[in-house]
Amino acid sequence: MKKQTVLLVNSNLMQPPVAPLALDYLAPAVEQRGFRAEVLDLCFSPDYASAIGGRLAGDDVMAMAVTFRNIDDSSLATRRSFLPQLKSIVDCLRAQTDAPLVLGGSGFSVMPEAVLAYCQVEFGVWGEGEYSLPLLLRRIAGGDDVYGVPALVYRSANGFGRNAPHYLDLRTLPVPRRTFVDNRRYFDDGGMSCLETKRGCPMPCIYCVDPVCKGKKTRLRDPASVASEMEALLSQGVDHLHLCDSEFNIPRSHAEEVCREIAGRGLGEKVRWYTYASPGPFSAELALLMKRAGCVGINFGVDSGCDRMLKTLGRDFTVDDLRRTADICREAGLVCMYDLLLGGPGETRESLKDTVEVMKDISPDRVGAALGVRVYAETALADMVYAEGPLSDNPSLHGAVEVEPRFAMPVFYVSRDLGDDAMQYLSHVIGGDERFFLHTPAAGDQNYNYDDNTVLVDAIRKGYRGAFWDILRRLSEEEP
Asked: Which pTM was predicted?
């Protein structure tokens, strides 16, 4: 009997392109439940309406699952929401078929009800979908009740319902084959591919949505499975990777196990990979293990160079940890970037200036200086903002606060103590230091807003590979 087709749709059109990892993980789980999984990747289809019409002309699809990776570009300067684009894609899909449509992905999981309401969609799966999506599809195919499916978000007569998730034991999952997405094309056009070694984040950062959409408990993959997945990508000619864990070194023991497994298979000599990490539990021993396993660069989310602001933002490390971590990376031969998140509650001109001066003194290879903290629902920062009174009266908020109290559209917190010329002041204290990136297109070659970044697109076309921030670094230093 012919298997029913489930269409997995990538709605992320950002350039340079980023591989839809979720679909490569979801497709095998869907097929294990007896369906035929097919990926419709709109990233490489500028005219996505024609691509959708061409694929659905035969109307042979049982259901569609659309992944939504980013709510917006997270930039105070541009405030570009991707929700209108998602709705346009959803409308195009619905115009071609009556098949049920389900939303998911990391962007969706940040605020599921708001996204469903905006796109006028009935169902979504928040968090990981390998268990819940196939179960939902089976119930749809069988005409059974779907409302008890774990992690389902749905419309009801009283608004929206959201079911508790069913978290998988990642150590028991089969090795991902990575054959459903064209990873080689993402490598050629996007400079790298990606994989994960764990899910979830237990850190108490007041602004971060990773615990909201991925869970607060860290769930670990089998290091052998991670290394085998890396081998699968290598067999496709993909040798530059980004490990997209929230923090690779939390817990540190698991990071060490993963590195030993990768190095033990000799993969450290064949791959170059990057990752996010915390400067808290970072050690010289781990740095050397990472280097031996093929790591070449680390992005540390340090947020601030002021101990008072670090405490306010919920970070568990100090400025001394930042100095020590930079020294460790230099000694190990690892390139590192320190990402700042400036303008949070309590930020002053003095603390901002101190942070910039500390970064200049510590001298990581690059510093990302993002002004404005994106406010997301279900975070401690959102609770603080709500407690301060009416959003429209709050001088620290910038964005569509009058029409979007749920923060679905971009809203940023910039401490009122920085004044009305905060961006100009930040540029002034940076003083043209080329080690600093700014999150605005006005920064030109120093712009690290990765949405439609033509500098990066051109560099990758010329053969640059690796993390986007490191490509920008090498361009500025004229490294091949």
From this structure: 0.95
